[in-house]
Amino acid sequence: MALRSPAAGRRRQPEVTRDRLLAAAVDLFAERGYDGVRVRDIADRAGVTTGAIYSHYPDMAALLADAAGRAVDHAVQAVAHVGHGELDDALLAAATSAAAGRRLSREQALLLEAIVAARREPMLRQALGEVLRERFELVRGAIEQARDEGELRPDLSPDAIAWFLYLAPIGLLTGRAAGMAGPDLDDLRAVFKAVVAGLHQAPESAPELCPEDAPELPA
Q: What is the pLDDT of residue 7?
């Protein structure tokens, strides 16, 4: 499932219907929880038939996973569609995206609930894994391209950098969900700026000591 950028002109009806389904699902899951929502409830809230749901998603788990994935779409888009020289700001936006705002958004709360529910629901676990993996691959691909173009250190793994960007926002979300105040946003940005700066320049190696310069060991 590729992320779509807003298109100019009139959108196709299937896209409109899908967005209505996702919006209805996010609202209902936030109000009632995963176990309290049925397919008919989402169809009624979206103003469509249940058949319209199954034309887009094979089951409720796939719909929930797609709705939960919206929580990371802003961060993913920030990194996946950057131009040359714009990566620093995009990485910073992605890493700190979960820290903005005083309360969790409905999409963010849904993502956390879906992660917990996925431990007991195998179908949801598979669907959520696929949704997040697709978004992860967009981020990883953008980082790999930036490394190939010389914007990032060649010795660092794009896969590991992408995982770091995934872990930072989710860690911030879990802290906020537990009532932790979290760091000052300006302080957090300063830390991530330092981290991002380290992705560009490899640390200088310590100069090798000549044998005659080596310190004498005590006898």
A: 45
Identify how many contiguous H helices and E strands the chain contains and give both numbers: 10, 0
Q: Quote the longest CA-to-CA distance of the chain.
A: 87
Written as one string, the DSSP assignment of 91-103 is: HHHHHHGGGSSSS
Residue type, 85: G
Q: How far apart are CA 57 and CA 130, in angstroms?
A: 13
Give the three-class secondary structure for 182: coil
pTM as predicted: 0.73
Instruction: Give 41's Cβ-side CA count (13 Å radius).
Output: 15
d(CA 69, CA 71): 5
b vs e for 43-62, b when ≥16 Cβ sit within 10 Å of the residue's Cβ? Answer: bebbebeeebbeeebeebbb
Six-digit token string for 152: 């990032």
Q: Give per-residue pLDDT as tens, 111-141.
A: 888 888 899 899 999 999 999 999 889 889 8
Share of the chain above pLDDT 70, in %: 85
101-118 pLDDT per residue, tens: 667 888 888 888 888 889
Measured over the CA atoms of residue 135, residue 26, residue 114 and residue 181, the dihedral's sign is: positive
